[in-house]
Amino acid sequence: MSARLLSIQTGRIAPLGPDRVPSGFVKHDIKGSVGVRPLGLDGDEQADLSVHGGPDKAVYGYAAAHYLVWRAELPAHSARLMPGAFGENLTIDGMDEDAICVGDIHAIGTARLQVCQPRQPCFKLGLYFNDARLPKALVRSGRAGWYYRVVEPGTIRPGDSVTLHDRPHPDFAFARLIRIVNFGGATEDELTRLAAMPGLAVKWRERAKAALNELRAG
């Protein structure tokens, strides 16, 4: 895996959309070094902590290559479809959902970040683009990106290499998890594994366990 950190984005809480909903969705490009803490990047904020932020949603990563596809699919939004447009903190070149696995630990700068869950966008994505179709389109595409938990705090900067530090579940591709989360159809074996997978976010382990109990109950 050869990847690099193309850009870093952070955002403060500000009004979003015609109803001026408080949100940290809008991100701004950071040129220099940024501190990575257990709950996210220095200077990054979340308005609704009941659904955003926390240890398992500390840092949001997105594949830079997806923007080329989105600009072709959504030409009306092409002017806005640049790194940071989906609210990500890290835009990464040379990596996507097919190239990573659940629980992967990536070394970026002096920080260590673990891939722990897929992103499920909320209505604020639609507000930013003034297009209510986009949250569902992002989910259906499988190109929604991934959340990291912070294993080791540190400092990162644009241009840093993104290297694979550890891969505890090499046979469980992240794209496979996305298909299960978005479209269902998981087997008993898959649910059993996910329910006991320490690299996966706590919320999704609990959901896998509940789904497994329902499946076994018939």
Write the layout of secondary structure elements.
Elements: E1 3-10, E2 14-16, E3 21-23, E4 28-30, E5 34-37, E6 40-41, E7 59-63, H1 66-73, E8 90-93, E9 105-108, E10 111-118, H2 123-129, H3 134-141, E11 146-152, E12 154-156, E13 161-166, H4 174-183, H5 188-195, H6 202-216
Parallel strand pairs: 7-8
Antiparallel strand pairs: 1-4, 1-8, 1-13, 2-3, 5-6, 5-12, 7-11, 9-10, 9-13, 10-11
Multimeric state of these chains? single chain
Structural class: alpha+beta
Strand proportion, as a percent range, falls in: 25-35%
What is the CATH architecture assignment? Beta Barrel
Question: According to CATH, what is the class?
Answer: Mainly Beta
Order of helices and strands: EEEEEEEHEEEHHEEEHHH
Shape estimate: globular
Average predicted confidence as pLDDT: 96
In short:
The chain contains six helices and 13 strands. With 218 residues, the chain is an alpha+beta fold.
